[in-house]
Amino acid sequence: xxxQILGIAALSLFATAAQAQELTVYTALEADQVKAYQASFxxxxxxxxxxxxxxxxxIVTAKLLAEKANPQADVVFGLAATSLMLLDKEGxxxxxAPQGLDxxxxxxxxxxxxxxxxxMDIWASAICFNTVEAQxxxxxxxxxxxxxxxxxxKGQIAMPNPASSGTGYLMVSGWLQMMGEExxxxxxxxxxxxxxxxxxxxxxxCRQAAAGEYVxxxxxxxxxxxxxxxxxxxxxxxxxxxxxWDMEAAAITSTTKKTDAARKLLDWSLSEGANKLYAExxxxxxxxxxxxxxENIQGDVEQMLAKNDFQWAAANRxxxxxxxxxxxxxKSEAK
Amino acid sequence: MTSVAIDTTxxxxxxxxxxxxxxxxxxxxxxxxxxxxAVLTLWxxxxxxxxxxxxxxxxxxxxxxxxxxxxxxxxxxxxxxxxASISNSILIALVSTxxxxxxxxxxxxxxxxxxxxxxxxxKLVSQIPLLAPSLLPxxxxxxxxxxxxxxKGALFGASIYGPIGIxxxxxFWTFPHALIIMTTxxxxxxxxxxxxxxxxxxxxxxxFWTVTIPGARYGLISATFVxxxxxxxDFGVPKVIGGQYNVLATDVYKQVVGQQNFxxxxxxxxxxxxxxxxxFFVDQWVQRKQSAAxxxxxxxxxxxxxxxxxxxxxxxxxxxSLIVLVIIGMAFFASxxxxxxxNLTPSLKNxxxxxxxxxGWESFFNSLRMAGYTAVFGTAIVxxxxxxxxxxxxxxxxxxLFQMLALLPxxxxxxxxxxxxxxxxxxxxxxxxxxxxxMSILVICSxxxxxxxxxxxxxxxxxxxxxxxxxxxxxLRVAFYRTFLRVTLPVCLPAVLDIAMYLFVNAxxxxxxxxxxxxxxxxxxxxxxLNMDDAGDVAPAAAMAMTIFFxxxxxxxxxxxxxKGALARxxxxxxx
Lengths: 335, 576
Fold this sequence. Notes:
Structural class of chain B: mainly alpha
Largest sheet of chain B: 2 strands, antiparallel
Structural class of chain A: alpha/beta
Oligomer: heterodimer
Distance between the termini of chain A: 53 Å
CATH class of the largest domain in chain A: Alpha Beta
Mean pLDDT of chain B: 89
Strand content of chain B: under 5%
Number of helices of chain A: 14
Low-confidence stretches of chain A: 13-19, 331-335
Helix content of chain A: 40-55%
Mean pLDDT of chain A: 90
CATH topology of the largest domain in chain A: D-Maltodextrin-Binding Protein, domain 2
CATH architecture of the largest domain in chain A: 3-Layer(aba) Sandwich
Number of strands of chain A: 11
Low-confidence stretches of chain B: 1-21
CATH superfamily of the largest domain in chain A: Periplasmic binding protein-like II
CATH superfamily of chain B: MetI-like
CATH topology of chain B: MetI-like fold
Number of strands of chain B: 2
Radius of gyration of chain A: 21 Å
Helix content of chain B: 55-70%
Strand content of chain A: 15-25%
């Protein structure tokens, strides 16, 4: 039986070797987005396959850093730019100027030349508000972040944990930049009083609001739009003070042995076809002039984006998360 | 978990003739058997002992891999947010254990000591929780008692997210384990004690406290420790329904998967090893006591109809069974709803796993393959090991070492074993490094994880066989493997099939060890449940959990039917 066991081991080894042109791609994209991207890329590049390793932003970032000694990823695709900047600082990314680099918005790429990472789209915070439950509880529709600290919201809000969720982090970073550090933390202290649950992923709060588990879910515009489209009784609200945001970006790892295939994926990412797919999910994409189709989002996302200093958000990430964890994580039991 | 050692008649012992030293020389068979036993011992050392050693080393390492002694433990105990988990875990485990042991005692009492109707059905229903991952009851509780839960009012405003939810989920999940132990304890009872109590005119109540409870005390102790360990080391239930209530098992997961802080994960993992090891030794002690408790002259107790007791037992068992069915039923119902709770039209939308986290339907088929391999290879290894350790002559040191290694996994929580596997097999210097991230490591880890119970089952079955069979075939110069294949294996077929079934179902439903070991090529269904719940896809998570449940049920039913046929052929000798 020992021989048989070694047999399976050998077989599975063989199986991996046979699919040599398979790219291992680490991503924090949503599971319901990657299928379409993958299909389009593989159709344009026959013979190259994508194998996704998907989790929330914080987890993917931590995983990449932890595997630094023995890296597994060929490409990081659809991870927050703030995270990619961290990886770049560790020397884990290789520079590449994909085809069509000159066509994309100047703000949506690493300023270095050639860039270490290129932007795909921008994703921004949004509130998912369950109108049916709100009516039952006679809760007023929130129009601003400040509304969420009102006492009537107590125990009605779910928010992603910024340590694991990129959406959570862009909110926290957005509040701190919009309001200033001191007022930002004070706002979060107030919000914390009303939070029922800090979730692992940025999608979960919106889905919980959709299921009426909580009235308010702090999430992002793609999930809000999609969840409403699926028939949930929710309203997607863009708070008037402005939206925290981050950029989804792609990069090639410095350790990949499949550089050619990896470059194909980055070339594809800048293509018009790819950007059209991004635009089905997000309001702002890298290539100018592509019309987004988010029928359930009222308001101009681009106009409402708060001022966001990526360098600051990336450089202060560890400090902000440590402070956040100290203040809010594990302090409370379930309410 | 316990196994009942069923004694052979004992007549054979008088036959052997110790006087004449027929053949002192070790035969070729003996040498072959010793070599094979040594190989299997090596196998257990590599798949159980060394990973645990790697974990131990990791807990004493600094960020650069240098030895820092207890520094990590000091760091852990100086963080109140982390140490709060210790008291949380103990509290949850204590409360769950008390409730679970009490309920399983009542249920087992009903099954073994009363003449209530429907015992067969109750017995079947009570085993249902074994066929589902521990995540399933937790998900079901969200639908029952969450903010939109259909029975939310039953909690009087308390939240299901937290200790209440964890306790209910854990009791559901550990119930069959406790029940097996309690049923065994209550089934082996001496009727003469009850006759004595009756002739002394003791009241039923007094008889219960002076005969029944003392008779079942080892079962109670054993069940208590087993349930306590299962609860404190399970992370499926608290992960889904724990809310912000942290326990040790979820801390390991958060440290390792969430923050990739492997050293701290190793520290918490070692803490989890304590209750498990303690429980292991208590269980061993109980085993010895229990087998001595029942003398050869005992008369099996036969319950007599008693309207009051039978009615009470029927109502109690009925209620418990109802709860089990409601929890499973709720998850199934929710998985079929189009959009809970606003649109309850049945649809299969939630079973469209390919558009969700966790690897889609491929995960399910990976799980089936993994469970299949585990059953086939695991049974082969376990049964061969048990045979060799029982039948090898002499070589007592080797046999003792193997026996200890075979029982070791019983004291190792899955989450701790999985963590040890990362440290051991992912080390670049390990020659077995190539299995990391493959299906093989999942199979090997699952075999190791569930080794002990399977081994005990095999040993029990082999002990039932008369040693004469080997003696006779040796004197007829038949090679031992021929005897093994022609006689031992067919005769032990029921146990072999039981082991295969046990390994299959456990490998299909387990989350704890494999959660650290799966790769993008080998995503598993039970882990998909976890990932979908994390992403907020709770209904699809319920759907995947139900898919696992149905698969396990179908295989179980097929097994019963097949086994019936196979057993009729090979086991006819048992009915004379």
